[in-house]
Amino acid sequence: MDKPNDLKIYEVFARFKYDEPLHFVGTVTAPDDDLAKVYAFNTYNEWAWIEMIAVPRAAVVHVIDPA
Amino acid sequence: MIDINDPKQFSDQPRRALADFLLALADTKRWLGIRYAEWCDSAPALEAAVAASAMAQDELGHSRALLPLLKDFSEVDQDIPNEVPREKYSSIAYLDQSFSTWNTFVAANLLLGGALTIALEAARASSYVPLRTRAGKILEEERFHWMHGEGWFKRLAADPKESIELAHRVEEMLPHALCWFGRAEDDTLTIEKILDADADELRARFLNRSASLIARTHAANLVKNENGRWQYVGALPWSQFNSTTRRINSEQ
Asked: Please, which residues 56-95 of chain B have a Cβ atom closer than 8 Å to chain A?
């Protein structure tokens, strides 16, 4: 079974109209990208999204770090 | 191909075979949904619990989308599509009991859910239009069920401790999944183009999708790959198989 260190946090973004940008909807914790997709889809499936992406938090480049 | 909307357009034998198939599909999805639901607050991670909940809703929804089709079959007891509680269901017998462990959930997700998906994929171009239209919608949702099962199966198979129990669950479940497609000689649904492949071909498709994952576990001896085609090693319990309910009944 997964150990806490095996898990990654993913930031989830989605949009439900073509003329709007992706916006942050929440996070999921998953051991890999494939399960992150499943978890994000199931967790944030309350809208008829046209696009949803999940970004590993570790891949985010901070421009301004919180203090 | 002729599109058929009313099952009365089929002759007696294919109409009965279609009714049996629809009931076995709907009942197995019903019980799969109920077993998934029992893990909504017990899965090993919050996200996995949410996935279990969503998959339970999906399976119960699929069952309730399929059952009303049986209203058009005069030979079917109308209590069934009207969802009157029954004593007997045409569901895979393994689902008669709750899943005792998360390994059981994952194996059922991959093998039992996976078997139903293979059958529905064979109905994507069905001559029976009500099944064809439902199959398309159901398969959209099943894509995520497979991803969930595959992802968890790989992780459990890679864990030396979990892999042993996972293999036991595979050994128990795999005959149920393989028999569910039916006997090779029962090819009525294929002849009528209700499904695009017979039982042997559906079993082969199922093994080609799942056997490489099974081969990662201690149950690898159950499958073998010959000339790029996966096969089940061993004899299936056909003497206990009921071709109407598609159940393996140990009491028979």
From this structure: none
Beta-carbon count within 10 A of B223 CB: 21
The domain ranges of chain B are 8-248
Residue B196 is given by DSSP the state S
Nearest chain A residue (CA) to B151: A35
**Residue B152's CB: how many other CB atoms inside 10 A?**
29
Model-level pTM?
A: 0.92
Number of structural domains chain A divides into:
1
Q: Is residue A65 part of a domain?
A: no
Distance from CA of A40 to the nearest CA of B (A): 8
**What class is the B8-248 domain?**
mainly alpha
Which phi and psi (to 5°) does residue B86 adopt? -120, 160
**Cα nearest neighbour of B144 on chain A:** A38
For residue A21, being part of any structural domain is answered with: yes
- The model's pLDDT over B131-140, given as tens digits with 9 standing for 90+, comes to 999 999 999 9
CATH of the domain at A33: 3.10.20
Residues whose CB is less than 8 angstroms from the CB of residue B132 and which lie 6 or more positions away in sequence, other chains included = B123, B124, B125, B126
| pLDDT band of A1, cuts 50, 70, 90 | low
